[in-house]
Design a protein that fits this description.
Radius of gyration: 28 Å
Strand order of the largest sheet: 1-2
Largest sheet: 2 strands, parallel
Number of helices: 15
Shape: globular
Distance between the termini: 90 Å
């Protein structure tokens, strides 16, 4: 070989060194410090079934790749003004008061991740705990230190897999959601509407509708959710409890777990990620899970259906594009996104309410027959809410449901003592079981009748 050929050095001289940023450097373009930091997080986590440190790092990396900018003062002012207008419109569509007093939060994508992470931990941790626990029980017993070592490895590997998957999901969600209540669960500060201007603008692209209308319509939805969760403080705990009930019914197929152990190289993170994404760790559905899932989907449908009815009543008389935006939001929810599919794969749980249309019809029927106050009164206690069967017969439920002047302790599940001078009637054995004919007449001053919010404007 001639010494003039590329890469050759003269005799007695040191070979030419490659520059770190050279085009022939195989590591060019990689952030090695970030890669090694992530590897360290993956294999050093000891804090539970989900490696939340890895999850947050993965989510932040996903957000950086999608792009995220700090909000300007003008953007925050626009959000504040939009929230004030939305609350004013909602005052005519619901008797539930605003919980924010006009205070709003304008977040970028990273701020959404930071602001909702505590709620995600509360939501997902029980699910992962039950899955990892089921996996540990499925392992053959190993005596002495070997058994403890296997359990520790399983917890570490499981935490790594869950952390990576959850991080990807949260990072993708941060690029899609409009606020803190998009999935029907309260993820941010209670009573404070949240808006992510970048995602709102991206949603409006291609709709051919005024940008101000898109922002206001999505703000109406966020503010309506916040009013409901603020008015019914039991609702948040009720929804999160329903998720945990679903988790308690988890069962991991032992044969599927054995197949996973035989096929996957535990030293290969990409293989582990592919296994989790393929559903190998997806729990089987049990009758208990199906019942819990039905209760959760009904509750979420009722929340989303109520928001749908309230926002439609508030926006339709004032916003010509309300119908188009209503359909755009419904279509987006029905199609689902990659982030939503991530959580379906992770725990087998679909958070989009399948029966929202039925629930919206039920709430609209209640508004027409009982008035706004009669509709909102059903949020006083979970036992007063419609069931899944009631969604099939909204008109019948509206006829059976009591208006506020007919509610008593029996409706809340308590024994009702006999009234003085009312004879020796014994308390009912099954509170709240009396039929419509045993209750007072609905006629009264609180009977509002059909209501058309904003018709006077």
């Amino acid at each position: 070989m001639s010494n003039d050929e590329p890469g050759a050095g003269h005799e007695g001289e040191e070979p030419e060194k490659r520059q770190p940023g050279g085009s022939d450097n195989p590591l060019a373009g990689f952030d090695l410090s970030a890669i090694f930091g992530q590897l360290q997080s993956m294999f050093s986590w000891q804090g539970g079934p989900i490696n939340w440190q890895l999850a947050e790092e993965t989510a932040r990396q996903t957000i950086r790749q999608a792009g995220d900018a700090s909000l300007t003062a003008a953007e925050r002012t626009t959000v504040d003004q939009t929230v004030r207008l939305a609350e004013h419109w909602l005052d005519d569509a619901t008797s539930l008061p605003a919980g924010s007093a006009g205070e709003a939060l304008a977040w970028n994508r990273v701020e959404w991740l930071e602001g909702t992470l505590p709620a995600w931990k509360k939501l997902i941790e029980p699910l992962a705990t039950h899955v990892v626990g089921a996996m540990e029980k499925a392992l053959p017993e190993q005596p002495g230190p070997m058994g403890a070592q296997l359990t520790g490895v399983l917890t570490q590997v499981g935490g790594m897999m869950f952390g990576a998957q959850v991080g990807q999901g949260l990072g993708q969600l941060a690029t899609e959601v409009f606020g803190s209540t998009d999935i029907g669960l309260p993820l941010g500060p209670l009573g404070q509407p949240v808006l992510i201007p970048a995602n709102v603008a991206a949603f409006g692209t291609g709709l051919g509708l005024p940008e101000d209308d898109v922002r206001l319509y999505l703000t109406l939805r966020e503010c309506a959710h916040q009013r409901l969760f603020h008015h019914a403080p039991w609702l948040s705990a009720h929804l999160f409890s329903a998720v945990e009930d679903y988790a308690r019914g988890m069962h991991v197929d032992v044969s599927k777990l054995e197949d996973l152990a035989g096929r996957i190289d535990m030293a290969n993170p990409e293989a582990l990620q592919e296994a989790l994404g393929s559903g190998l760790l997806e729990p089987e559905e049990t009758p208990r899970q199906k019942a819990a899932l039905a209760r959760l989907e009904t509750a979420l449908a009722l929340v989303e259906g109520w928001v749908d009815d309230v926002v439609t009543a508030a926006a339709a008389p004032r916003m010509p594009s309300a119908v188009s935006l209503h359909e755009a939001v419904r279509r987006r929810r029905a199609e689902g996104g990659p982030a939503e599919q991530t959580f379906v794969t992770l725990v087998g749980l679909e958070l989009r309410p399948r029966r929202m249309r039925d629930a919206a019809t039920l709430w609209a029927t209640l508004r027409e027959t009982r008035g706004i106050t009669g509709r909102e009164a059903l949020w006083a206690h979970p036992d007063m809410l419609p069931s899944g069967d009631d969604l099939d017969d909204p008109r019948g439920f509206a006829e059976r449901a009591g208006s506020p002047d007919r509610m008593d302790l029996g409706d809340l599940g308590f024994d009702v003592p006999p009234e003085d001078g009312g004879g020796a009637a014994a308390p009912p054995e099954e509170p709240g079981s009396e039929g419509p004919g045993d209750r007072p007449s609905p006629d009264g001053p609180d009977q509002e009748g059909p209501d058309t919010p904003g018709s006077g404007r």
